[in-house]
Amino acid sequence: MKMSTFAAIEIGAYDVVMKIFEFSAKNGMREIDCIRQRAELGADTYAFGYVSYEKTEMLCSILTEFRKIMEGYRVDDYRACAKSALRETSNALLVLEQIKSKTGLHVDTLGNSEHRFISYKSIAFQETEFLKMIEKPTAIMDMGEGSLQISLFNKECLVTTQNIRLGTMRMREKLASMEEKTTDLAGMIDELVSSELFTFRKLYLKEKEIKNLIILGNFLTKIVKKAGGREQGYLSREVLLDYLEKIKNMDPEEMAEMLEIPNDAAEILQQSVFIYRSMLREMEVEEIWAPAQSFCDGLAYEYAEQHHYLKNPHNFENDILAAGRNIAKRYMCNARHSEAVCNFALIIFDGLKSVHAMGKRERLLLQIACLLHSCGKYISMSYSAQSAYNIIVSTEIIGLSHREREIVANVAKYNTMPFPDYRELVSTLQRADYLTVAKLTAILRIANEVDRGHRQKYKTVKTSFKKDVLTVTVDSAQNMTLEIGMMAEKKQFFEDVFGVKLNIRQKKRI
User: Fold this and answer.
1) Contact 160/326 with Cβ under 8 angstroms?
2) Rounded to an integer, what distance in angstroms lies between the CA atom of residue 495 and that of residue 355?
3) Closest alpha carbon to 293 in 111, 29, 14, 25
4) Looking at residue 230, what DSSP letter applies?
5) In CATH, what number does 3-110 get?
6) In what order do the strands lie in the sheet with 460-466?
7) DSSP string, 113-175
8) How many CA atoms lie within 13 A of 471 on its CB side?
9) Which of 226, 39, 233 has the alpha carbon at shortest distance from 145?
10) C-alpha to C-alpha distance for 349 and 498, rounded to whole angstroms
11) How would you class 178 by CB atoms within 10 Å of its CB: exposed for 0-12, middle for 13-18, buried for 19 or more?
């Protein structure tokens, strides 16, 4: 029986965690070891903006030990990821280079949306419980050391996800200088949380009534268990709120003893207790679920999915598209036009598979670009292209990296603006990404032009590709002279990018 061993490493603000997993086609996924070492990178990051030499040496020492453990387990593969405590430092690249040099390990620094998406996957793979929760309007509250992520589900679809800078270690650093000046630390945190949630409620909750809440966070399952949580981590808002009220003023030593965790971990958890309590007082929910899952579990689930050890129970791509549609709705894009452009663009994309050498991920980015290509008009009709770029690159889309958002933003921008030479492009994109932007832009321009009048005149579209000629046949009973006639410039760019001739013809219905 084929088996595989995988190590998932999480470099956080407070500690470094490694979990070892075993996979097989018969037994699926099984955790066989978990090692946790304190590192407190966040103490440097959130106070000074960089990681000191001493903390870097400590981190390299921990990862060297982790590598030895991996060799002992004969690990087949691994993935090591650093979260905001390293991502937000001014010397992140230098620290990563030292890790590579001294330990031989490659560490990915994840953007916030990628990090949260992996955490979200770890609970979505618990199919029965997750699907049961999101049958009703549900919020996922993911507490990290640097920030808090709130994701909203409605009708089993992801509506929005927003990042609020209320993480446990960031909060501790903010309030450290005030602790000696007040006896009401909980009251101060209530004020901070309330002010941060005010805008979130106005923009995203409005008339929505959140019925269920899924909470993620270190050591939270221990609190839920002590509070009297039912099997698999379920309990009511009132029960959890009462328990948090009871323990909020405990000394870290008392909390550590009660929850059977290290004293230093209890110091961080105390900040979590204050924030959870404040959040729950602001949200009227019926049921809470605190699954015993972590970021490392999410990394393992991704590996299992990619290597076909586990079947994906939930369509995560649909969540990304749902997020894109909700952003388009927020900026009042014409939904029927955007969907028509999207459908036409995908037909062209699929018809050119043998030429463009792009895959499923680029196809998804094309869909997002089509949905959002006109969002800039909400800001400015005259400068809509640049406005669209600014909106997309500044808006988190869960599951997309910053680089992927940059690709989508440039495709939306150059849908109507002249396409620049690579040397003129003010961007962080690499050459390969520039070519992807060019290809996706060429497709979007054609698809957008075919629905120039926003009237969806065609019924069906077919493509055929022969002898370097892509023929697109549009079946329509209406006059499409405007759409086809306005396409000359877009067609030339398309042909230059792909090196094929484009022939668009109308098949008129009788």
Assistant:
1) yes
2) 12
3) 29
4) B
5) 3.30.420.40
6) 460-466, 469-476, 501-508
7) HHHHHHHHHHHHTSHHHHHHHTTS-EEEEEE-SS-EEEEEEETTEEEEEEEES--HHHHHHHH
8) 9
9) 39
10) 11
11) exposed
Helix axes 92-103, 53-72, angle to 10 degrees: 40
Query: Which residue's entry shows tokens 């009703």?
Result: 136
Give the residue extent of every domain in the chain: 3-110, 127-289, 316-508
Q: How do residues 235-293 score in pLDDT, each as one tens digit?
A: 888 988 898 888 887 888 888 888 887 777 777 777 778 788 878 887 888 888 888 77
Pick the CATH number of 127-289 from 3.40.50.300, 3.30.420.150, 1.10.3720.10, 3.40.630.40: 3.30.420.150
Four-residue CA torsion sign, 175, 268, 233, 226:
negative
Q: How far is CA 192 from CA 171, 231, 274, in A?
A: 10, 33, 11
CATH topology of domain 316-508: Hypothetical protein af1432 (1.10.3210)
Alpha-carbon distances of 438 from 70, 356, 365, 496, rounded to whole Å? 42, 11, 13, 10
The three-class DSSP label of residue 455 is: coil
pLDDT one-digit tens code per residue, 43-67: 777 778 889 999 999 999 999 999 9
Q: Which amino acid is at 171?
A: M
In the block, which residue shows the tokens 């009660």?
258
Q: Say whether 316-508 and 3-110 share the same fold.
A: no
